Amino acid sequence: MLKIIKGMKKGSKPEVIEPPPGPNAPSDVTVNHASRSAVPHPQLTNVKSQAIGRTQSPQPCVVEVTPLLKDVPVSERHVLFIKKVNMCAVSFDFGDVLKKVKEKEIKRQNLQELVDLVQSGSSKMNEIMQQEMVNMISMNIFRSLPPQAFENTGAIDGDPEEDEMYLEPSWPHLQLVYELLLRYVVSSDTDTKVAKRFIDHSFVLNFLDLFDSEDPREREYLKTILHRVYGKFMVHRPFIRKAITNIFYRFIFETERHPGLGELLEILGSIINGFAVPMKEEHKLFLVRALIPLHKAKFINYYHQQLSYCITQFVEKDYKLADAVIRGLLKYWPVTNCTKEILFLGELEEILDATQPAEFQRCMVPLFQQVGRCINSPNFQVAERALFWWNNEHIVDLIAQNRHVILPIIFAPLEHNIRSHWNQAINGLAGNVRKLFFEMDADLFQECNNQFIEKEAMVNHVLEQRELTWKKLEAIASGLGEDDMIMVN
């Protein structure tokens, strides 16, 4: 797990590294990337196309041993810093471990030195140095990701857990690049007014694309850095939320595959926690249009914990959203997936913990109709999870206040469970709930019991009449000759 950097320890006053005097201070390599030109409030899709169009490859650079920055005079550090940054922009083939071993080690050492420099805060970077460093970071992390396992095998409906995990072979360098970016973002020396020129909308879009990586180590860094960027660059917050929303839309309506969905939802959990009350209409629409539809995915178990936290945060912020959330979950209720049913029941219990009586009354009828079906589920885990609701004091209080509506709905499923469910433990749980209702209101319980007996008698009467009709038809058919024919409407 990555540690969140809360502050930077400083020793003496940082030295400001300035460019050497003279008309030109050229670097050995010029690295251009999409993030170089700030995009003034474009549409999100336009930013993406512009970012791709402006990306260029670095010029050739000789990777060689150089002295440490601390060992050279201050007047020479600017040129040396740029040279080290340019050497770090060179990519290597990690598919062959014996290829360019020396150059790979030099790059690793240079990256580590840059990380230590930014972390210590001993030397303050000027704008040119920051620009070149972010350029180098972009050249390393923004790349074409390999096809995911299901794309290679064609098993679109296969379980992601069965897919072979891809680990980035260049991680020894990539980790240090991410660490450098993290230290740069969290550093108290980083001025957002300057840094936003490099970490712009194009940078953010390309960065979000990396969440599609199958390497969990990379996604962990991405999560931490994006969270820090969101916290520090207030100007980017609406854009980041919109870009994440578009990722969710693509997942919901097109792919239903995204390795980094859990990490994105984890970031959103913190963001939602910071929403001001009363909540903006924009945020409510995000809940209804993006978060709730995420429940329809087949493999929701890979991100359900984070999704459930986000949903619950909304209800805790604004209890009036409980009705919309509960009805949304009922809309996407799984019909043939018992694992998802168990997850839904658990999430609903958390939502009901934050639900007020007035909102509960709006959705209690369809809610407990579904709970009744779960109680009668042949899958004992689904039935057990539904019956466990009666161990929650807040839910029991809500049920008690509305028992005249809920007990008639739930009485028949309870009786059928007690009489015919194959699992004895479930029979016992249903019996306990039945007893709780009896102690809650004996008169209402007896009234529901009488109605249940009457309905059962009517059902049995209909079955007997149907059986009698069939016997008459069989008798008539057997008494007729082979050439005779009857027609029954």
UniProtKB/TrEMBL annotation:
<protein>
    <recommendedName>
        <fullName>Serine/threonine protein phosphatase 2A regulatory subunit</fullName>
    </recommendedName>
</protein>
<comment type="similarity">
    <text>Belongs to the phosphatase 2A regulatory subunit B56 family.</text>
</comment>
<dbReference type="GO" id="GO:0007165">
    <property type="term" value="P:signal transduction"/>
</dbReference>
<comment type="function">
    <text>The B regulatory subunit might modulate substrate selectivity and catalytic activity, and also might direct the localization of the catalytic enzyme to a particular subcellular compartment.</text>
</comment>
<dbReference type="GO" id="GO:0000159">
    <property type="term" value="C:protein phosphatase type 2A complex"/>
</dbReference>
<feature type="region of interest" description="Disordered">
    <location>
        <begin position="1"/>
        <end position="31"/>
    </location>
</feature>
<dbReference type="GO" id="GO:0005737">
    <property type="term" value="C:cytoplasm"/>
</dbReference>
<dbReference type="InterPro" id="IPR011989">
    <property type="entry name" value="ARM-like"/>
</dbReference>
<dbReference type="InterPro" id="IPR002554">
    <property type="entry name" value="PP2A_B56"/>
</dbReference>
<dbReference type="Pfam" id="PF01603">
    <property type="entry name" value="B56"/>
</dbReference>
<dbReference type="InterPro" id="IPR016024">
    <property type="entry name" value="ARM-type_fold"/>
</dbReference>
<keyword id="KW-0963">Cytoplasm</keyword>
<feature type="compositionally biased region" description="Basic residues">
    <location>
        <begin position="1"/>
        <end position="11"/>
    </location>
</feature>
<dbReference type="GO" id="GO:0019888">
    <property type="term" value="F:protein phosphatase regulator activity"/>
</dbReference>
